[in-house]
Specification:
mainly alpha, about 0% strand
Length: about 140
């Protein structure tokens, strides 16, 4: 729908200025992506988040935590039932029984701090040994 009239003086300037104002922040966001002389960086894109990578819990670490937890509960006489109710495999439960036996022997001497250190050490040693070759070969409950 042409009116036959020429645009008002400065209308094109206003439109062009609007584009510059809109594009300005986009260009400014790229300002830090080059080197000091303005050339593009060859090292690739930088990470934007700066957040640490997520931690993946190893089978050994998970085993150690759960065996130590349930060992401490058993030493207090606070248990829920069999090894499956605790979320342990048969092999992990074997480790737990060894840990509890060693810690109980230490508790008989009255040293609770030493017994707690035994729980940590024996649980870690047992779990490290169990998963040294990549895990049990008897399936998930072995």
């Amino acid at each position: 729908m042409a009116t036959g009239r020429a645009p008002a003086p400065g209308a094109a300037l206003g439109f062009g200025l609007g584009l510059v104002l809109l594009a300005g922040p986009l260009a400014a966001g790229c300002a830090g992506s080059g080197t000091a002389d303005g050339a593009a960086s060859r090292s690739g894109p930088a990470t934007a988040t700066g957040a640490p990578a997520p931690h993946t819990t190893s089978p050994e670490e998970l085993c150690t935590r759960i065996v130590a937890y349930w060992s401490r509960r058993q030493l207090k006489g606070d248990t829920v039932g069999d090894y499956q109710e605790m979320g342990l495999s048969d092999g992990q439960y074997d480790i737990l029984r060894e840990v509890v036996d060693a810690a109980r022997a230490e508790l008989e001497h009255g040293d609770a701090d030493s017994a707690d250190r035994i729980v940590e050490r024996k649980a870690r040693e047992g779990c490290d040994d169990r998963y040294r070759t990549g895990g049990p070969s008897k399936g998930p409950w072995g």
